TrEMBL record, chains A, B:
Gene name tied to this protein: npdG
A GO molecular-function annotation: cupric reductase (NADH) activity
Protein name according to UniProt: NADPH-dependent F420 reductase
Organism per entry: Nocardioides immobilis
Taxonomy of the source species: Bacteria, Bacillati, Actinomycetota, Actinomycetes, Propionibacteriales
Record-annotated Pyrroline-5-carboxylate reductase catalytic N-terminal domain positions: 5-103
InterPro entries: NAD(P)-bd_dom_sf, NpdG, P5C_Rdtase_cat_N, STEAP_metalloreductase
Gene3D superfamilies: NAD(P)-binding Rossmann-like Domain
Record keywords, A-Z: Oxidoreductase
GO cellular component, one term: plasma membrane
Oxidoreductase recorded as keyword: yes
Amino acid sequence: MALQTIAVIGGTGPQGKGLGLRFAQHGHHVLLGSRSPDRAEAAAAEINAKSPAAPRAQGGTNSDVAAAADLVLLAIPFAGHDEIVGCLTKALAGKIVISCVNPLAFDRSGPYALGVDHGSAAEAAAVLAPESQVVGAFHHVSASALWSDRPSLHHEDVLVCGDHEEAKSVVQELARSVTGRRGIDAGPLRMARQLEPWTAVLISINKRYKTQSGVRISGIDGSH
Amino acid sequence: MALQTIAVIGGTGPQGKGLGLRFAQHGHHVLLGSRSPDRAEAAAAEINAKSPAAPRAQGGTNSDVAAAADLVLLAIPFAGHDEIVGCLTKALAGKIVISCVNPLAFDRSGPYALGVDHGSAAEAAAVLAPESQVVGAFHHVSASALWSDRPSLHHEDVLVCGDHEEAKSVVQELARSVTGRRGIDAGPLRMARQLEPWTAVLISINKRYKTQSGVRISGIDGSH
């Protein structure tokens, strides 16, 4: 795919930093955002130390990196999601916005899905950023696998949902930087209601089997 | 696992008949239930014709087969679920009850998850049959793959959830008759809130890719 400038909102968290690393290693210019620009710069320095040959990642405030990017990844915790996205509406307008947000909570029985206004975090983002093309993706890849030295997470699939076909196709291509394969089109944006809480199933399996589980879709050949 | 007498409530539907076939082929005594005993007998005859060497499957009313079985699979459409299960409470008492019910509906955008009292069909069954050990499993295997001549659906995983560890373990073993591998423990019964509607994702993928997709969990070796 064409190389892009990708902003990661919540880029100092493990999921955002891990995806930022993979995007940078595939030649994209990565801008990590945080409420604290110092923490964002520190996270960018970690990516640069790990991938000295990649384009240099940079850090900044969430609003600065959102404004400067072609494509924006929301990798923020669900707590605070609406407030953060609501402040970025203008910077996100006209852009592809990817949500990998998983609205989960934990109790003694393990992880469970939170009830979410509008059905899913991705649909909430679409309401808060109505001039953006919101796509749900990258919910299931584990942060530690992303941050590891494994060249590609071949054993996992990235499932992509959205109501804008072209934007979805861009994100399906971007998935190659993580799994080495095009992401799978899982349907309209409302499918995020299933993709997001599926992470609870994987976390539950990880706990029981002391592993890092991932999801793979069978019945689709590698060329999809 | 020990051979059992397994009743399939809704055994004339494609999912129930397909799972019944697999159970029979692995030596279990299968009783197909239906509101119409004639239709149940006809479905049992189809299984017997396909697997002449297996123990003979038999048909009967839902309540007769539930009363006669050691283990009961609910394979009914979600419409009518509560009424049917509510009538079987007594016959199900003390038994393992497996729910593979997927509460889905369809509109122009494809499949979507229905809102369900108690969170999921499996949890609703647990409320309606409080003296049973309800386990959720077999939601994702496709009916046509089950009914095909493929010896085992090796490319798929059966995910199993439940609050009764022993019952869950029995169902994990039963999954071998479908995939050739022990089913994966996905956690407590409430995880059915994710397992059931995940079928919408697979149906959506099937439509887009003109395939029969299935779910496979990576990161767990074959010996689980």
